[in-house]
UniProtKB/TrEMBL annotation, chains A, B:
Xref: InterPro entries: ArsR-like_HTH, HTH_HxlR, WH-like_DNA-bd_sf, WH_DNA-bd_sf
Keywords of this entry: DNA-binding, Transcription, Transcription regulation
Species per Swiss-Prot/TrEMBL record: Metabacillus herbersteinensis
Coiled-coil regions listed: none
HTH hxlR-type domain mapped to chain residues: 5-103
PANTHER family assigned: TRANSCRIPTIONAL REGULATOR, TRANSCRIPTIONAL REGULATOR, MARR FAMILY
Keyword presence, Ubl conjugation: no
Top-level taxon: Bacteria
Any Pfam family the entry gives: HxlR
Keyword Protein biosynthesis recorded: no
Protein name: Winged helix-turn-helix transcriptional regulator
Length: 108, 108
DNA sequence: CTGTATCCGTGAAGATACTG
DNA sequence: CAGTATCTTCACGGATACAG
């Protein structure tokens, strides 16, 4: 694939609808599938799995399966995934500021 | 709207399919509609206008109309839009590194 | 040159049920 | 608990034509 501008490559990796949200949660530490679901009430099982698979394929997320019953699967950022941290941090903090701004406007 | 995590607010603003690309181009300076189209061969007139309108509505992009014939419209980042720069810069440079990595893999 | 309006196909994403 | 498999829906986004 030829990109017209490098940033498109970034969007290929974290441009999915839920990918940034998932990554932001994983920054705080590894999470089980069920934990991620609770953290993202809006996502369906299908989408969660799908987005995680794609992140895995791009080498930014790790999937660890514990061979036990009931099953336990844990997701975490790979070392390469950690290189996205500056982006994720920036997006998180900008979002906080933006929300504060919106609520201020609503108050008026 | 209630966000489950602040970063969702950020995605509301720059989560559109072309928004980050547009913003990255505007970082380098104001651009006319036709210039943006050339910079983004894959985008349609409709999508370009739509995404620009939404960015405008969110206060991150400015639209300046010159009253002349033929029409001339110039887009630029607003002051608030500039606050997104850390995110955009990080995404751009990460993309560059990611592309380099991919091409290296292909070479093997 | 810039923008709007319309039509329409595709595919993303939801709901549901089922497996191990 | 975690994941897969269908089926369906609907909105995103493309193509096209037209207007100022």
């Amino acid at each position: 694939m030829a990109y017209n501008i490098p940033v498109e490559a970034t969007l290929d990796v974290i441009g999915g609808k839920w990918k940034v949200v998932i990554m932001c949660h994983l920054i705080k530490g590894e999470r089980r599938t069920s934990e991620l679901k609770k953290l993202m009430p809006g996502i369906t099982q299908k989408m969660l799995t799908q987005q995680l698979r794609e992140l895995e394929a791009d080498g930014v997320v790790n999937r660890t399966v514990f061979d036990q019953v009931p099953p336990k699967v844990v997701y975490s950022l790979t070392e390469y995934g950690w290189s996205l941290r500056p982006i994720l941090d920036a997006m998180c903090s900008w979002g906080e500021g933006h929300i504060a701004l919106i609520e201020k406007e609503v108050a008026n």
